[in-house]
Amino acid sequence: MDRKNNGIDYIEFHVRDMARSKGFYEAAFSWSYTDYGPGYCEFNSGSLKGGFQLLEAGQEPQIGGPLVVLWSHDLEASRVAVLAAIAQFGGRLSRETFDFPGGRRFHFCDPNGYELAIWTEA
User: Fold this and answer.
1) In degrees, to the nearest 5, what angle opens at C-alpha 72 toward C-alphas 66 and 74?
2) Which domains does the chain have, with CATH numbers?
3) Chain segment 40-79, per-residue pLDDT in tens
4) 3-class SS at 24?
5) For the range 68-74, what are the long-range contacts, defined as Cβ-Cβ under 8 Å and sequence gap of 24 or more?
6) In degrees to the nearest 10, what's the CA dihedral of 66, 24, 12, 104?
7) Does the global pTM surpass 0.85?
């Protein structure tokens, strides 16, 4: 993986259910995984690695902060895949596809409530 200076190198999500979270991102984006015990899993999107950290009992994910934005060559195909993952694992579409200067995108929330966006050029 070619790392860029000051570029995003790793993203970590705190999750309630490891299997459900892995299933969602695998179904939507074909991410692969490396398990490091029952409480931590590293994901690989093909261009970025990150992790899923299992929350302890009583903890809740800290929703908010920076918006993670994914790139897509085919926005509609990505939307269909996300909707299928939502139907199977939970989550929701939080903003329908819209145009913005330079492209189009939509937003969704994963089963843990994290909001992400997917965009493509106009």
Assistant:
1) 145
2) 10-121 (3.10.180.10)
3) 999 999 988 999 989 888 888 777 777 898 989 999 999 9
4) helix
5) 68/11, 68/114, 68/116, 68/117, 69/105, 69/116, 69/117, 69/118, 69/119, 70/29, 70/45, 70/116, 70/117, 70/118, 70/119, 71/118, 71/119, 71/120, 72/118, 72/119, 72/120, 73/120, 74/120
6) -30
7) no
